């Protein structure tokens, strides 16, 4: 009796399990077919032109995956476009000082008059300094673009401002510009590297000194607000029209008639402010003509 019971139980299982396995294999294969098609489409994508994957007539289960992939492709394409534009702009900007250096070197080679030769050599030195400054700014931007995430520590803003103003004072004095610091209290701000703050302050003060007429004063003010720390750099230069303020924060953009610099100082300051969780604004001078560059840091 037990043999008969076992035979009646095992016979359907022996026949049914292979059939069930075959049915499952067919069903799983049919269910994974859209994923296999998506994988083939991804494999066929051109790395230089990431076109979005078609999202029509796809199962609802994998549509979120395709939407996320298309979003990723869009961000990668935008990043590649920015890199190409940055490379082209950098090459164009480097060509100008290099061409000036070459021209001045040729003049110095052919000059017979010592005054002409010395004048050409002075221009050669200025061209080298401009190229070196541009390369330093490009390297700074490359390092900043590689950073991600909020700052992990904090540092006192006021000593950083004092250090930067002490370093720039001889250069500003040579241009007939006085530097003034207002603020006498400790104001910690979120920044994991003092160097970042030094570059931010230096670029804002450098920009203010470059476009201020001789005999004027560039004022740097540090003040604590209830929920923020405010850094202001005020100059008495020509200012920036309101319609141009967003554009001057972009890379390699210079106002018409102002050819000094490479148009990177404010964009570097904006990137550092973003890394520190701060907000950079360009406003009118509160007491007349000029510009007020304001950075508001969250309190550490």
From TrEMBL:
<dbReference type="InterPro" id="IPR050428">
    <property type="entry name" value="TCS_sensor_his_kinase"/>
</dbReference>
<protein>
    <recommendedName>
        <fullName>histidine kinase</fullName>
        <ecNumber>2.7.13.3</ecNumber>
    </recommendedName>
</protein>
<dbReference type="Pfam" id="PF02518">
    <property type="entry name" value="HATPase_c"/>
</dbReference>
<dbReference type="InterPro" id="IPR036890">
    <property type="entry name" value="HATPase_C_sf"/>
</dbReference>
<keyword id="KW-0472">Membrane</keyword>
<keyword id="KW-0808">Transferase</keyword>
<dbReference type="InterPro" id="IPR005467">
    <property type="entry name" value="His_kinase_dom"/>
</dbReference>
<dbReference type="InterPro" id="IPR003594">
    <property type="entry name" value="HATPase_dom"/>
</dbReference>
<keyword id="KW-0067">ATP-binding</keyword>
<dbReference type="InterPro" id="IPR004358">
    <property type="entry name" value="Sig_transdc_His_kin-like_C"/>
</dbReference>
<keyword id="KW-0597">Phosphoprotein</keyword>
<dbReference type="GO" id="GO:0004673">
    <property type="term" value="F:protein histidine kinase activity"/>
</dbReference>
<keyword id="KW-1133">Transmembrane helix</keyword>
<keyword id="KW-0547">Nucleotide-binding</keyword>
<keyword id="KW-0902">Two-component regulatory system</keyword>
<dbReference type="InterPro" id="IPR003661">
    <property type="entry name" value="HisK_dim/P_dom"/>
</dbReference>
<dbReference type="InterPro" id="IPR036097">
    <property type="entry name" value="HisK_dim/P_sf"/>
</dbReference>
<feature type="domain" description="Histidine kinase">
    <location>
        <begin position="89"/>
        <end position="300"/>
    </location>
</feature>
<keyword id="KW-0812">Transmembrane</keyword>
<keyword id="KW-0418">Kinase</keyword>
<dbReference type="Pfam" id="PF00512">
    <property type="entry name" value="HisKA"/>
</dbReference>
């Amino acid at each position: 009796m037990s043999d008969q019971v076992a035979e009646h139980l095992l016979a359907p299982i022996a026949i049914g399990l292979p059939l069930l396995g075959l049915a499952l294999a067919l069903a799983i294969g049919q269910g994974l077919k859209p994923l296999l098609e998506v994988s083939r489409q991804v494999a066929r994508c051109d790395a230089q032109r990431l076109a979005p994957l078609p999202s029509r007539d796809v199962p609802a289960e994998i549509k979120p995956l395709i939407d996320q992939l298309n979003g990723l492709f869009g961000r990668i394409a935008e990043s590649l476009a920015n890199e190409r534009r940055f490379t082209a702009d950098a090459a164009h900007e480097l060509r100008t000082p290099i061409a000036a250096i070459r021209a001045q070197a040729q003049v110095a080679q052919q000059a017979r008059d010592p005054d002409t030769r010395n004048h050409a050599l002075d221009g050669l030195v200025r061209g080298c300094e401009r190229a070196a400054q541009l390369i330093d700014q490009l390297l700074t931007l490359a390092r900043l673009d590689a950073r991600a995430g909020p700052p992990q520590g904090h540092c006192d803003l006021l000593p950083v401002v004092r250090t930067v103003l002490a370093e720039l004072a001889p250069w500003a004095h040579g241009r007939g510009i006085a530097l003034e610091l207002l603020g006498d209290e400790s104001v910690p701000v979120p920044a994991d590297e003092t160097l970042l703050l030094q570059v931010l302050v230096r670029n804002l003060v450098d920009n203010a000194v470059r476009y201020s007429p001789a005999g004027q004063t560039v004022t740097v003010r540090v003040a604590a607000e209830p929920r923020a720390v405010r850094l202001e750099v005020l100059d008495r230069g020509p200012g920036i029209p309101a319609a141009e303020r967003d554009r001057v924060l972009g890379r390699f953009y210079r106002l018409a008639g102002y050819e000094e610099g490479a148009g990177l100082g404010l964009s570097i300051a904006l990137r550092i402010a973003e890394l520190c969780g701060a907000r950079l604004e360009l406003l009118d001078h509160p007491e007349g003509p000029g510009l007020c560059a304001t950075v508001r840091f969250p309190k550490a």
